[in-house]
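Lecture notes, part 5. Sequence design as translation. It can be helpful to think of inverse folding as translation between two languages: the language of shapes and the language of residues. The source text, in structure tokens, appears below.
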């Protein structure tokens, strides 16, 4: 089998995989769709190249009885690898920081300890949990700025507990940031779409809190930050 034949067969598999995985109709352009997805932005040039080669071969462009173009082995491999990526789209459970690795606070944790750990270990988010691991609130990087803007000062003495600032750790109505609850089986692509939607509304995704079915009343199973999403793009 020539490279041209191998390429066409590989491209057909890619089209089938994209249509099945993303629910595209037969008339929708697979290459155009992939180029609009954040996860594939870095491959846009290669995707368009593959589409152009496919169009030439599909319409029997011949010169002297031979295909006008002969796809390289690298292009065939790219289409095959792209198909594998489409078919193995990660879910939130695959990329989240697992509960066992999450530093969490309780209402009785000193605020000073939380701030110190965030600074020393570079954490952008610290959830506040009850005895059943249900989220009660969230410390984020913007907490101190928001608190100072509203209250004017913050005493980080050892006596100040998380319970003393619990009102300011609410999950809803946070200025300029969004906290989401998502189910563990949610596709990462879908979470990225929700993050982009929030950004268009002048909010940024602060953290996605992972529970079994995405309900806030369920125990925390992990969390996903924007940095975790960047790692899969």
């Amino acid at each position: 089998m020539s490279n041209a034949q191998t390429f066409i067969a590989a491209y057909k598999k890619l089209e089938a995989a994209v249509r099945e995985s993303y629910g595209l109709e037969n008339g929708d352009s697979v290459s155009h769709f992939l180029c609009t997805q954040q996860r594939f932005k870095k491959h846009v040039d290669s995707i368009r190249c593959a589409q152009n080669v496919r169009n030439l071969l599909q319409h029997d462009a011949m010169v002297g009885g031979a295909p006008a173009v002969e796809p390289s082995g690298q292009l065939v491999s790219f289409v095959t690898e792209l198909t594998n990526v489409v078919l193995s789209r990660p879910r939130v459970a695959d990329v989240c920081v697992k509960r066992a690795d999450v530093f969490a606070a309780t209402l009785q944790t000193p605020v000073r300890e939380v701030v110190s750990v965030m600074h020393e270990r570079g954490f952008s988010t610290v959830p506040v949990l009850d005895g059943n691991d249900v989220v009660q609130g969230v410390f984020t990087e913007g907490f101190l700025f928001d608190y100072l803007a509203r209250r004017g000062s913050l005493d980080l003495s050892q006596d100040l507990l998380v319970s003393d600032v619990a009102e300011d750790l609410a999950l809803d109505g946070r200025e300029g940031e969004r906290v989401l609850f998502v189910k563990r089986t949610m596709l990462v692509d879908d979470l990225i779409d929700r993050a982009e939607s929030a950004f268009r509304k002048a909010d940024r995704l602060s953290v996605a809190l992972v529970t079994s079915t995405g309900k806030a009343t369920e125990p925390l199973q992990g969390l996903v930050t924007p940095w975790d999403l960047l790692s899969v793009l």
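The translated text above is only one of many valid answers, since several sequences can fold into similar shapes. Residues 105 and 114 are 7 Å apart (CA to CA).
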